[in-house]
Amino acid sequence: MVGNAYTRAVQNYKQEAVLTMSPGEIVIALFDECIKMLLYTQEHIKNKNIQGKSDCLKKAIKIIEYMTASLDMKYPISSELENLYEYYIWEMRNVNLHNDIQKCGDLISMITEIRDGFKGANAEVAKSH
Predict the structure, then answer these.
(1) Contact, 122 vs 128, CB < 8 A?
(2) What residue spans define the domains of the chain?
(3) ∠ CA 63-31-109, rounded to 5°
(4) Fewest CB atoms less than 10 Å from the CB: which of 5, 49, 73, 128?
(5) Maximum Cα–Cα distance for the chain, whole Å?
(6) Using the 8-state DSSP alphabet, how is residue 71 labeled?
(7) In whole angstroms, what is the distance from residue 18 CA to residue 75 CA?
(8) What is the pTM of this model?
(9) Closest C-alpha among 125, 96, 98 to residue 27
(10) Going by C-beta distance under 8 Å and a sequence separation of 6 or more, which residues neighbour residue 86?
(11) Could you report how far apart the first and last alpha carbons of the chain are, in Å?
């Protein structure tokens, strides 16, 4: 009973936190979650946990698919991001097929780099307001 109340409280807190985030903060949080899933993927590959690897990669792919669907194509950078996100998905599928820890690490580096770029841009936007 107490566990259920705690779980509901945590879910409510997370929901409220998302509702108060700026769009930039949401993008950063999505990248962070994707990176976390890829880090877990590496561990699952090392431990030969095929189901865990597949589950984490599916979550990472869903995050990138959501981000792709959320792009506002009236901005020129959106088509570039769309291509980049498609590349990430392609590479994640290759990681899944080949259990490639190195490629997974490369993806983590690339996604971290773009996440850091969004963090910098978000900080600039926050300073200007």
Answers:
(1) no
(2) 22-128
(3) 115
(4) 128
(5) 52
(6) -
(7) 24
(8) 0.86
(9) 125
(10) 68
(11) 45
How far apart, in whole angstroms, are the C-alpha atoms of residue 73 and residue 121?
19
Q: How many other C-beta atoms are found inside a 10 Å radius of the C-beta of residue 5?
A: 9
What are the structure tokens assigned to 56, written together?
A: 């984490």
pLDDT score for 115: 97
CATH code at 22-128: 1.20.120.340
Residues 23 and 118 sit within 8 Å (Cβ to Cβ)? no
Tokens of 127: 């300073």
Contact status, residue 87 vs residue 67, Cβ threshold 8 Å: no
Amino acid at 30: L
- pLDDT tens, position by position, for the chain (129 residues)? 556 776 776 566 556 655 678 889 999 999 999 999 999 999 999 999 999 999 999 999 999 999 999 999 999 999 999 999 999 999 999 999 999 999 999 999 999 999 999 999 988 888 887
Cα–chain center distance at 18: 15
Residue owning tokens 């570039």: 80
